[in-house]
Design brief:
Elements (H helix, E strand, L loop, with lengths): L3 H9 L3 H13 L1 H4 L3 H11 L2 H13 L5 H13 L3 H9 L8 H14 L3 H14 L4 H9 L6 H14 L3 H17 L3 H18 L5 H13 L2 H7 L8 E4 L7 H8 L5 E3 L5 H5 L8 H8 L5 H17 L4 E4 L4 H11 L4 E6 L2 H11 L10 H22 L3 E5 H6 L1 H12 L41 H11 L2
Parallel strand pairs: 1-3, 1-4, 2-3, 4-5
């Protein structure tokens, strides 16, 4: 049986599928092997194998069931596997532990918010602050949900805490919360100062060079040529899937929630199941695709089957599934091979609105959002790649404008449902009443009726943003 060292070596050798298989066996036999389960959790997460990460976290907890940090590891792993209600329940077990009570209230609040239970979530965040007045993350969630009590008191408390904390991570969190608070009272100058200071701290904590990612996105166009896709494409499959390719903060959650008003549709949100099913493709670099070309016949069918099986196992049997995973845009070529009958949706928004929203929302899955400049450059590369897919795949991709969706919803949603092959239900406008879990920064907005308030939102900050946008956007 492979050791953790062997598995790490397989990852380094660009053999992630072999690494994942070895890690799954190792975790299953962890009691006999004495494996470092904390390290196994990290390796599984790096491979996108959230189920194995959860198994490792549970085994790790079983060795010391009273350890609050190990409970938190399980809670986070449950969230990554879309088990939000179970995570909220487990979080309650921490609330009786004096040293972990604040985190217990906070984590239960996070999952209640994902499930659309805003008032309960806000009460839990307040409980977290009663247990620990310095709980910066609780303030951030209150600001995200726009759930202030006495606003002046809340603002003063956040400012006082930001002034005295010494942890860069906590200070950064509070600065972004303060940005939202000042935005709430239309003090855009002070809001921008807070966002900019928070972003500068974030960049200092985790410096980021966007050039490798930008180059990688350009190579996707070179790798997935029409000839390569035709060579490997499965004969059929995917008619019950819609993949949303859009950038963060461009309407992906809204699109999915609207489609999910159909009783046929199961919204799967964001996950790593496609990445896990296609580990044999590595990073989809030229050498990886050359290796795939020399593989056994039927490998692509096996990958498609593995993805479909994992979707049904996690989300249940459904008539049609939507997948809005953030990195779908660079998997589009592989999606076309695996599921030739699947539909894709590219929902695009004014790049300035998207860049500003990503920057101020502290998108955690994309370090490119740490600076406005990187945000713009990433989104430009993202749009070039998506336009490439539109040009190549034609009617298989629904080209949807966010502005049209919110300003002319009757026509745009009729077109969206027709092109994805889903009958539009009469109650589609009530999408915000659904109890689907939402684990993105849009969790508050999609619980409200459709509106166009976000169109042109960057203009409120034009004095601060125009110098960057004018320089980078033609």
């Amino acid at each position: 049986m492979a050791s953790l060292q062997d598995i790490s070596a397989l990852i380094a050798a660009r053999k992630p599928a072999d690494a994942a298989a070895g890690l799954q066996k190792l975790v299953k036999k962890s009691r006999k092997s004495g494996v470092d389960l904390a390290a196994a959790m990290r390796l599984a997460a790096s491979l996108g194998d959230t189920e194995t990460a959860l198994a490792a976290a549970k085994a790790h907890l079983a060795l010391a069931s009273g350890d609050p940090q190990r409970v938190i590891f399980v809670i986070e792993a449950l969230g990554a596997c879309a088990k939000h209600a179970e995570a909220a329940t487990l979080a309650r077990s921490l609330q009786s532990k004096p040293m972990a009570a604040a985190d217990g209230y906070y984590l239960e609040g996070v999952f209640k918010a994902r499930l659309g239970q805003r008032d309960e979530a806000l009460a839990l965040f307040r409980n977290a602050l009663q247990q620990n007045a310095g709980h910066a993350a609780a303030w951030e969630q209150i600001a995200l949900l726009d759930g202030y009590g006495d606003f002046a008191s809340d603002l003063t408390a956040m400012q006082a805490l930001a002034a005295r904390v010494t942890s860069p991570e906590q200070k950064m969190t509070l600065l972004f919360a303060l940005g939202r608070a000042f935005d709430h009272i239309d003090d855009v100058d002070q809001a921008f100062v807070s966002y900019a200071e928070g972003a500068a701290l974030r960049e200092a904590i985790t410096p980021y060079n966007s050039e490798p990612l930008l180059a990688y996105l350009e190579r996707r166009r070179q790798v997935f040529t029409p000839e390569l896709i035709q060579q490997f494409q499965n004969q059929s499959g995917g008619e019950n899937f819609t993949f949303i390719l859009s950038a963060p903060r461009s309407g992906t959650t809204l699109v999915e929630q609207i489609l999910a008003t159909s009783p046929r549709v199961t919204a799967t949100g964001e996950h790593t199941l496609l990445r896990l099913a296609t580990l044999k493709l590595g990073s989809m670099e030229p050498q990886d695709m050359a290796n795939a070309a020399s593989g056994k016949d039927g490998e692509w069918r096996k990958m498609a089957h593995a993805f479909q099986t994992s979707i049904r196992k996690r989300f249940g049997l459904g008539g049609h599934y939507t997948d809005k995973t953030m990195i779908n845009y660079y998997y589009a070529g592989a999606i076309r091979i695996l599921f030739p009958q699947a539909k894709m949706v590219w929902c695009h928004r004014d790049l300035r609105d998207t860049a500003w929203s990503c920057f101020r929302s502290r998108i955690t899955a994309g370090n490119w959002a740490q600076t406005l400049e990187n945000s713009v450059q990433f989104l430009q590369a993202h749009d070039r790649l998506c336009q490439h897919w539109v040009d190549q795949f034609g009617e298989s991709i629904v080209d949807l404008s966010y502005e049209d969706l919110v300003q002319a919803p009757e026509a745009s949603t009729a077109d969206l449902f027709e092109k994805t092959g889903i009958a539009r239900p009469e109650n589609w406008e009530n999408f915000y009443e659904a109890d689907n879990a939402v684990a993105t920064a849009s969790l508050a907005q999609v619980r409200k009726p459709l509106n166009a308030k976000s169109v042109g939102s960057w203009k409120r900050y034009e004095a601060h943003l125009a110098p960057v946008f004018d320089r980078l956007i033609s």
